[in-house]
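Supplementary Note 3. Input sequence used for the single-chain structure prediction.
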Amino acid sequence: MRVPPVLFIAWAHVTNRVRQTFIGVIGVATGVGFTIMISGVMEGSQRQFVGTLVDAMPHITITDERLSVALQPAEQIYGAAQRSNFAATERRPGISNSNLVLGSLRDWLPGAITPSVKVTAMVYSGNARFGVTITGIDPRQEETVSKLAKQIVAGELYGLSRGSNAVLIGQALATKIGARVGGTVTITPGTGTPISASVAGIYRSGVREVDERRIYSLMRTAQMLAGQPDLVNEMRIQLNDAFAAPEVASRVQGQIGYKAIPWQEANADLLSSFKVQEKITNVIMAAMMLASTFAIYSIISTITNEKRNDIAIMKSLGMKEYFVQTIFIIEAAMIAIVGIPVGWLLGYLLCIGMTHIKYSNPITEGTLAIAIYYSPIHYIVVALITLACCLLSAFLPARKASRVHPVDIIRGAA
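The predicted structure, written as discrete structure tokens, is reproduced below.
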């Protein structure tokens, strides 16, 4: 089979300058490999952090903060009915008609929902004391909205039902106050009588703020601390799709009139830091791609300078400018086509190597391995960008070489 002249000449140029070609391939492979590694590390760390947040907290939290006045039966039936000049009354904290609210949401909610009681208090153990949030739960329903049962490292979830005023405390808090399973702690609410509670279990959520500040108890224990036997001031929702939380929360708010907070809003400050991280990552990857581009530019420029006589001969024989340009662009493409697969392999090996690096996580107070997210999209996108950069970097010297008049080249050589 006859090889097209442009391919034959381009191949001859690339293979005759093995050292330069090798340097170009290494430059392309290095840019591709490190870009893939950085992409995998950044996305892997983000996914690991978000996964920890999603496991440690409900996807949506409904509070007893009323956003609008509840519709009366007349307004629900007759759209023209209106109310005005309401007398201000002191509202009892809590979600009104909580059982009806739960029933109306369960009819359509794509997930599970459970009521709870939230009370702020102080916990004492010996001379140590800390401010905490007591969350009153139903152990049977809790398993449908959280992974608390799997997060317990000592004791068990259903131990709440067996002890007197039993509680579950976070491992970080237990370490600070010296609490252990079977021991007792004193809990004092903001307004009310202190109680002595037995420690039924110790959990570790993976988020230090949660482990230090949240204590779980039965709902009746939390209601007793609040001084309101039937209080329900919080509902927690676990969705089938955690990332649908904002849309579902908006619908919940519109239906019941209470504030619904998706987990993204509750952690907006932390999640916003990811945007800064992504910008920094993009700058680093752009710098690596730029390095590969300069490597190709340098090589093609060198080849065009060395092959000036060849260019003069080809143009004197009637070769068009676009034909000369095509030769050098094909040379850049050849270097990229070889360098990109080598870069893929290098990137994959770098990712594997990064997983063996351990670091101390200040959020979880534990030692973790660097998380890597492997995605074919990373490889494809980096390859396409690299190929485009290589072709673009070859265009300028190729264009310059093709515009040189053969007489000028021959006269200069003479």
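The CA atoms of residues 31 and 289 lie 6 Å apart. The longest strand covers residues 111-125.
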